[in-house]
Amino acid sequence: MSRSVLVTGGNRGIGLAIAHAFAEAGDKVAITYRSGEPPEGFLAVKCDITDTEQVDQAYKEIEEKHGPVEVLVANAGITRDQLLMRMSEEDFTSVLDTNLTGAFRVAKRANRGMLRARRGRLIFVASAAGMVGQAGQANYAASKAGLIGFARSLARELGSRGITSNVIAPGTTATDMVSALTDEQVEAMVQHAPLKRMGRPEEIAAAVKFIASDEAAYITGAVIPVDGGVGMGH
pLDDT value at position 9? Predict the structure, then answer.
């Protein structure tokens, strides 16, 4: 049965791959984007998830056209990499506001319809960096680690209502965000992975699609790494 799916930051990279995976399965897919031209084939809603009013307006449009959101993939995120001694407070707070508080905003708004329906899937895209840390990414790693505590708290809070809450933790993935790094930086990151390669967005999307499926109905509060082995043991 076709479901109403929302992927935040679904206009490129991992988010776009996730949106395609759900669309190919026959779901009604809405995406949010903040800038640029959105991809075709989805209900694209311009929305800055750091603005609660914009989040609410986006949901109203999606609910009107697709019905209440049944699967939320909180994927939107930013980086502002810098060593701690050079990191400004704005560098730190802006990353947390988008990556962590932004996830809170979209999950809280989705929760309304999921509670009413007594079912739903909350899926948060974190990062291996949130488990193992990353030099120069204290802000980003903190925001992604925060998603784990947030998702697990929701798993306990909402499980009795048939709502699952899980985290997907990608490692280094071939996206525009990674293409901004130097070859030396990418090579160093790849060498940390036992599989000695970057992940593909489609591999992350496959894990997201599974955790949203009926087969995963008894999985909640999980952190599922798709990272080539970088975060094993965490």
Answer: 96
Query: What one-character-per-residue DSSP string does 33-72 give?
Result: ESSSPPPTTSEEEE--TT-HHHHHHHHHHHHHHH-S-SEE
Beta bridge partners of 45: 32
CA distances from 161 to 66, 105, 121, 220 (A): 22, 20, 11, 12
What is the reported pLDDT for 156? 98
Split into its structural domains, the chain has a count of: 1
Helix/strand number for the chain, H first, E second: 9, 7
Q: Quick one: which of 183, 174, 148, 24 has its CA closest to 74?
A: 148
Cα–Cα distances (Å) from 35 to 12, 46, 127, 171, 175, in that order, read 11, 7, 23, 25, 17
Give residue-wise pLDDT tens across range 194-210. 999 999 999 999 999 99
Task: Give the catalytic positions in this structure.
Answer: 140
pLDDT at 184 over 90: no
Residue-wise pLDDT for 46-85, tens only, equals 999 999 999 999 999 999 999 999 999 999 999 999 999 9
Is 215 inside a domain boundary? yes
* Residue 168, helix vs strand vs coil: strand
CATH no. for residue 17? 3.40.50.720
Amino acid letter, 181: L
- Residue 135 falls inside a structural domain: yes
Q: What whole-number distance in Å separates Cα of residue 60 and Cα of residue 28?
A: 15
79 three-state secondary structure? coil
Range of the domain at 38: 4-226
Q: pTM of whole model > 0.90?
A: yes
